Amino acid sequence: MTTTALSTDYLIVGSGAVGMAFADTLVAESDADVVVVDRYAKPGGHWNFAYPFVTLHQPSQFYGVASRELSNGHVDQVGLNRGLHDLASGAEVSAYFDDIMRHTLLPTGRVRYFPLCSYTGDGDFQHTLSGERFHVEATTVVDCTLLNTEVPATHTPNFEIADGVRFLPLNELPRLREAPAGYVVVGGGKTGIDAVLWLLEHRVDPAAITWIVPRDAWMLNRGNIQPGMEFFETTIGTQADQYQSIAEATSIADMFDRLEACGYFLRLDPDVRPSMFHAATVSELELEQLRRIDHVVRLGRVQRIELDQIVMDDGIVATTSDHLFVDCSARAIPALEPRTIFEPDVIRPQTVRGYQPAFSASFVAHIEVTRDSLDEKNRLCQVVPLPNHDVDYIRLTLAAMTNQYHWGLEPDLSDWIASNRLDGFSATMRDAPRDDEAKQEILARLRTNVFPAAQKLAEFAAEL
């Protein structure tokens, strides 16, 4: 079979949230020609395989691409997110990315999209179904695979499962037609949270749920990250509280205590000290529901599931062959060492602001378009490392604050960020009424504590 030759300015590998946000900004702000290659049939990455009841954990206004709103603008009136901005469902997110590709990117005539293609490197890719081969001569390759998200539907557990054990990913929960003797949710992260909340929402007795939580985690309070001036006191106020808590902390442990006391951090059990931080985000109403589960197993990781017991790092839990195990053990984004984002002929988008991969990808694309030297691009795009352990919060927050400081020194970047819909908060702070004393006091407290907080984080980071 012959190989089809192509040429382009940018070859983007991956059309998940990162690839789509990068492409959207690149195409909007330049006249570049772009080829997008992806192994899935539609854009959206892991959203193609998301479980039916998944939603975003943070407001829809912070997700997607810069050029098109994802949120419907509603504040939820019912459910466990009531009083807060809407959270798009998995189906909505998937349809959104498909619409962006078909009605925003492709109509420019400067974007060519190759779904169902496996990229093998060096500009080569092959169509999965037809076997057709392609080679792209690209000025720059944009590798959007570093932040690939692992989902339950495609995850292989790293523990043994005996024959006969009823074991399924949470994608299959809505298809159950008969209640088991009990449910065992394996995993304490975002998918574990979603599984427990879904079971409780559908009238499962909390006593019928066993929740295996290898490590307790600090969680973010969704109420503190709401867009719009009407949430200024809680959102910007909590940011000021965060910096003040850090600045006044006498130790790392004291810092976490202060961050919990001010409402920045939440935890599942007030008597169990978290050792993990993956930035899972919950509402206070959701946390109330999670705390209804009494049988939370904290015996480390699962080693083996047998018909009558679960063998774990630090003990054994009795079970039965009639129990149903729900796999939530996949980690959304695996721990990885940060890579330099801009290198000759290669761009590797990663997070340059904590918790916001979509904004980060859009920002990296903007820097690619507006800055010339690699040194300058990398100076403005220092990687904010993904968190795993609790103390990773220190490095993450310090890196994000450092980036924000550098951006604030350049007026064109400040203006661009404030106008980018994925940013969330810059425009809210900029537009705070000058005669509103309460809001101005919050901003003054934030400014007063930002540099002492950064200094304290640097001291704590040196201790690690």
Keyphrases for this structure?
five-stranded parallel β-sheet, 464 residues, alpha/beta, 12 helices, 20 strands
Give a description of the structure.
With 464 residues, the chain is of the alpha/beta class. Helices cover 33% and strands 18% of the residues. The strands form four sheets. Strands 1, 2, 3, 4, 5, 6, 19 and 20 form an eight-stranded mixed beta sheet that branches. A five-stranded parallel beta sheet has the order 8-18-9-10-14, covered by helices on one side. Strand 1, helix 1 (17-29) and strand 2 (34-37) form a beta-alpha-beta unit.
Summary of the model, kept short:
With 464 residues, the protein is an alpha/beta fold.
* Cα end-to-end separation: 55 Å
Q: Could you estimate the helical fraction of the residues in percent?
A: 25-40%
Number of helices: 12
Mean pLDDT across residues: 95
Low-confidence stretches: none
Q: What is the β-strand count?
A: 20
Give the secondary structure arrangement, pairings included.
Elements: E1 3-13, H1 17-29, E2 34-37, H2 90-105, E3 111-114, E4 117-121, E5 124-127, E6 133-143, E7 160-161, E8 166-169, E9 182-186, H3 190-201, E10 209-212, E11 219-221, H4 232-248, H5 252-261, E12 265-266, E13 281-282, H6 284-290, E14 296-297, E15 302-305, E16 309-312, E17 315-318, E18 323-327, E19 342-343, E20 346-347, H7 357-370, H8 374-380, H9 392-408, H10 411-419, H11 426-430, H12 437-463
